Amino acid sequence: MALSIRQLFLTGIGLTLLVACSDEPEQQAEIIRPVRFELVNSFSSDRSLKLTGITKADEETELSFKVGGTVLRLNAVPGKRIKKGDLIAKLDSSDAELKLDKQVLSLGKAKAQEETAGSNLNRIRGLYENNNVPLSEYEAAKEKFSNATASYETEKRALSLTQRELGYYQLESPTAGIVLSKNVSVNENIQAGQVVTLIQNGDALSVEVGMPEQYIAQVKTGQSAQILLPSITDTPFNGVVTEVAYTVSSESSTYPVTVIISSPTKAIRPGMPANVKFNFQTDNAKSVLVVPVHSVAKDGSGNYVLLVVDSGDGLGKVKKVPVEIGRMTDKGFEITSGINIGDKVITAGVSSLEEGMSVRLLK
């Protein structure tokens, strides 16, 4: 059946409206992001500083021979406790012993020559006193005896020196302690002065750190510090500053500061990483607001933080707040203006959030 013109017109209008309705965008549900936050709190403005260092023996001694030679014996075992006078190493002393034997023979000959010259002098003195020999012969006998005596004394000193040098072929510990390292091996030919082993004197341990120039004037010997060894325990050890360098280190451009560990345990060994905390108290200490470093962002208008305005049921709205920041501490940035104690500051994902966004609060 044929459609009338009116029916065709009405059908076209209906199709147009249907197409128009189908092109309208669908409304999407608002995405609620989960965020973590911290309550803004106040802390004392007394300054603290954490520095990293390595534990070491407070007193270390490098042992070496005064002479060179081949190592025949080596008792330096890292970690071994030794007593004062214990034998550390021994060199081949066969050449020195041969030299000593020759020196003994030379001394014997010199002694015999002195005795002969002395007997001859006594004989000629008697003849001279009886006018049986001239004065020149008597003077010659005295000179010969004097030379023989001088030669004998020289040989005695030479023998004493050789005997002392023979002792250089044995290396003994000058103090009780712990062997930290050995640098030579048996049968190795070493030079005089070459370090054989490193010894820790006693049980004292310390940490050396590099102090920045802006703090070095506040560090004094006898000042207390806290030392944390992450590999051993979460409980810090007490420490005392024993050395403060007067000049800067060429390697790190900081001032070396040595902190001795008070009452170290046997678990602490040289070479362990350590964190040292210094507290610098001020006479006008006051409370300041501090937020985590990663909570502070910056745009063209300056520094800001994002707060959460609680709307109930664990939800909230993001609020962008400009802030003025002070110095950075180990707890975060000091905030001098813009926020108050108890504000909820967002601690993660600041760059992906915007003013007015809905968020879910995570503990």
Number of strands: 24
Uncertain runs: 17-22
Q: Radius of gyration, Cα only, in angstroms?
A: 44 Å
Shape descriptor: rod-shaped
Distance between the termini: 72 Å
Main sheet summary: 6 strands, mixed
Helicity, as a percent range: 25-40%
The average pLDDT value, as a whole number, equals 84
- List the total number of helices: 4
What is the chain-wise order of helices and strands? HEEEEEEEHHEEEEEHEEEEEEEEEEEE
Q: What proportion of the residues form beta strands (DSSP E)?
A: 35-45%
How are the strands ordered across the major sheet? 18-19-20-24-1-23
Which class of secondary structure composition applies to the elements? alpha+beta
Summarize the structure.
The chain has helices spanning 5-22, 94-129, 135-167, 213-216; strands at residues 33-39, 41-44, 47-57, 60-64, 69-74, 81-82, 87-91, 170-172, 177-182, 189-190, 195-201, 205-211, 224-228, 237-244, 255-261, 273-280, 287-291, 297-299, 302-312, 315-322, 324-329, 332-337, 344-346, 358-362. With 363 residues, it is an alpha+beta fold. A 6-stranded mixed beta sheet has the order 18-19-20-24-1-23, with no helix packed on it. The chain has a 6-stranded antiparallel beta barrel with strand order 3-12-15-14-13-16.
